[in-house]
Design goal:
Number of strands: 3
Radius of gyration: 18 Å
Number of helices: 6
Number of domains: 2
Strand content: 5-15%
Structural class: alpha+beta
Strand order of the largest sheet: 1-3-2
Shape: flat
């Protein structure tokens, strides 16, 4: 999907994105087929797990956020985001704000729904945001080198 753009305009991709995409150019077709088979199993298991739920709440990340200009920490925490299972299953997920760290960096949670249940996920996210009004809050003007929860 990205082959032409990576060849013609690699500078349009962030370095971290290029590092994730380029190895894919060297994946053998047999590995790709096996990955698709495993994806099918994961999708089936996710459908079964979600039968009793309209949606579930998950973390957005396994780490506290870091400044976007802190490339070393971004590189360390990038892989620890909690979106991968839902990217693989293709199920809807949305991250909504839950507050800020003491350093003023945003915290969030994910709302995840069943396949094709985007309207439900959006309604839950909207209801949460309306109830908490967290989307209207701005971070405190605190600048701390050590991230901690507010």
């Amino acid at each position: 999907m990205h082959e032409r753009d990576l060849q013609q305009r690699p500078e349009d991709y962030a370095e971290i994105t290029r590092r994730k995409l380029l190895p894919g150019a060297f994946i053998p077709a047999s590995d790709s087929v096996k990955a698709q088979q495993l994806r099918t199993v994961l999708c089936r298991e996710f459908v079964d797990a979600m039968k009793a739920f309209d949606a579930v709440i998950t973390l957005s990340s396994l780490d506290l956020p870091c400044r976007i200009d802190d490339s070393e920490t971004v590189a360390k925490t990038y892989e620890r985001q909690c979106r991968m299972p839902f990217n693989v299953t293709g199920t809807p997920a949305i991250s909504v704000p839950t507050g800020f760290t003491a350093a003023g960096l945003p915290l969030g949670m994910q709302i995840v729904g069943r396949a094709f249940a985007e309207p439900m996920v959006y309604r839950i996210a909207q209801a949460y945001c309306d109830a908490t009004r967290l989307g209207e809050r701005r971070p405190p003007a605190v600048q701390s080198a050590e991230p901690s929860l507010v």
